[in-house]
Amino acid sequence: MTSAMDVDKAKRQLEEATQELELLESLTPAGDIKAGAPPTLLSAFQTARPSPLDKDKDKDKGTKEHPPQPKYHKGDAKGDQGRKGKDRGQGQNQWQRTGGGASNSSWRNPRGMGAQGSRDPWSEEELVKDNVEEFRAAMKLLSTVMLRHEDQLAIQKQDTSYVVFIQTGFPDSLAVSTHRVAQTWHSMKTAIPEKLEAPMRVLLFQHFIKTVLSKLELMMQTPSSKSMAVNMGLLAENEEDLMGMKWDQAANRHVPDSNIPTVKAKAAMQLLQKVLTLCPHPLVISRYHATRKLAQEYQGATLTMLLQVGYRTTEADEVWQALGGRDLSLQGRHAAECLGEKAGVADMVKRLQLTNGGNFCYCNAVIKGLLYAMAFRGGLERFFNGGMLQLLRGILQRSGATHLWRHPFWVAMMSGWRQPSRQHDGAEFMQFFLMKQSSAAVHIQVHWQAKEQRENLWRCVDGGSSAPLLVVPPADATADESQGLHGYSMQELIDHWHMQETLHASVSTPQLLALQIGRFDCNQQDVCAIKRRFAVIPNQTVTFPVFGDNDEVLRSTYVFRSAIVHKGRTPDSGHYFTLLFEDSQIWYADDGDIGVQRLRGEE
C-alpha cells in the first residue's frame, strides 16, 4: 500500500517537473539552448517575452530576429513528391532538431500548456492583474493634476473674464447690429483680406463699446433726456451719477441696486472712450464671442457674449483697470503705481533743460510739449521705440542741460531738416518730427472727413490726415480798438472747425490730439506774413467730434496738457516757449530753464 502511494507521488512530481520544464522551454527562443545543455531558470528569465507595454514596439524587431517556425511537418505533400533520398531526410531531421522551440512544444503537449497557461506570470492578463493598483494610483494622480490645472485657470480668469448680456427683444438692437458687423468682417475677409486691420473679436468689442458710449452721450445730451433717464432709474436725482443696476427676475427688468456705488456719467464716458482707444492694440482682447451663432433674429430674450481681457501688455492692463472701475476709485496698488509712473515722467519733463545755443527754441518747445502730453497718455513707450526711446529717456534722466542738436543720434534721425540753427515754424517742425517717428504719428494723426447730406444720405466730399490739425477762428477774429481783443476758447475753435459748410469730424479717435491755431494770413506772395491778433482761452477739457458707424457724431474728451506758444511777427521769427498745464496750475518752460510754477490767471 505504502509502495503504491510512493510510486504515485513520484509520478505526480515527475509530471509537474515535466510541465515546468516545458514551460521554461516555451519561454526560451529556439536556438538559444545548446545541444545537451538543459535550460536553467536564469536563461528562461533572460529570454522571457516582453511586457505588454513593449510588445507592440518590439513586434517588428522580434519578427526579423526570430522568424516564426512551422507548427508541424506536413509530411509528403504534393510539393514534396519530387524530393527523395538525402535531401528529404535532411529536411526532416532538421525539423526534429528544433523540436525544443516554443511552437513545437505548444502543439506537442497541449494538455500541459493548457493546465499552466492561465498561471503564466508573463502573460498580458497576469501583468495587468498584478499592476491594477498601480494603474489606479496613476489615473487618480493624473485626475488630480488635471483638476488642479483647471482650478488654476479658473482663478486666473476671475479678474479678466466678463459675461455680457445683450437684449434682443426690440428692433435694430445691439445683437442685430453685432451680427451685421460680423457679416461685414467675413465679407471683407473673403474679398479683400489685406484691408482687415483687426480680428473680428476686436471689431465686435469696439462696436459694443461705441454703441454704449453713443447711448450714454444721447442720454446726457438734453435736459429732457436726462429727466427721462432719472424716471427710468438710470440716473440719480442730481442727473450726473449713473446708478448701479441689477436684474429683477420678478419684474423682468433692471432696477437700481443701492449696494453698487454710483459713477459719474462723464467719468464713465471717459473710461469707455479710453477702452475704445486701447482695445485695437495687440493682446488686449483675448476673447469676445457669442455662446451661440449670431443671427438676424433670435428666439431668446438675450444674447450672451463672453469677454476676456489680456494681461500681458500695458494697454491690456489699462483696459482691465477701466472695466473694473479702478480708475474711478484709484484703489489698488497696481493702479497707484501706474499713476505714479506717469507723474514721474511729467515731473522729469518739468525739470528738463534743453539749451538753445542759436535759434533752436522751436525744437525745444515742440519736444517739451509733446513729451509732457505723452506722459499722461500712456508714457513714452507707447509713442516711441528703439534708439529714439532710449535717447529721450536719457535726456529726461540727465541732471544737467542737454543740447539735442549736438547729439549724433538726434542729428542722424533728423536728417533732411534744412538749416536747423535758423528759426522755423514750430508746427512745421512737429510735422517733420512725426513723419520721422511713425510710431508716434499713428497715435497723433487725425484722419478726418468732410460730409454733406444729399437725398437723406451723408456723402464724403473731402478728407485727409493731419498732425497737428489746423483750426482757424472766425473771419472777424481781429483786434478791435474799441472792444479790445476777441477771445475764443479752445472748444469754440474746435466747434468752428466742425460746423463748417460741410460737417467735419474725425473717423477715428487719436490717442493724443494736437491742434494748430491758425494765426497768420498769407499776403499776395502766398507768404504767412500777416498775423491775426486774438485771445485764446485754454479749456481744462475739450471734446472732439468723431463720426460713428451710422454717420452720427460722437464726442471724445481730452484734457488740455500743453501749449506751444509763439511770440513774433512771423512763424519763422520771434521766440517759442511751452506752457504745461496740471489741474489748476500752469508751468512755464523755456530754453535752459527749469519750469517755473505759475497759478492760472497770473500775469
UniProtKB/TrEMBL annotation:
InterPro entries: Papain-like_cys_pep_sf, Peptidase_C19, Peptidase_C19_UCH, USP
Origin: domain of life: Eukaryota
Polar residues biased stretches: 93-108
Chain segments carrying region Disordered: 22-124
Biased composition (Basic and acidic residues): 52-89
Gene Ontology CC annotations of this record: cytosol; nucleus
Coiled-coil annotated residue ranges, if any: none
Signal peptide (from-to): none
MF terms in GO: cysteine-type deubiquitinase activity
GO annotation terms (biological process): protein deubiquitination
Domain USP as annotated: residue spans: 352-603
Protein name per UniProt: USP domain-containing protein
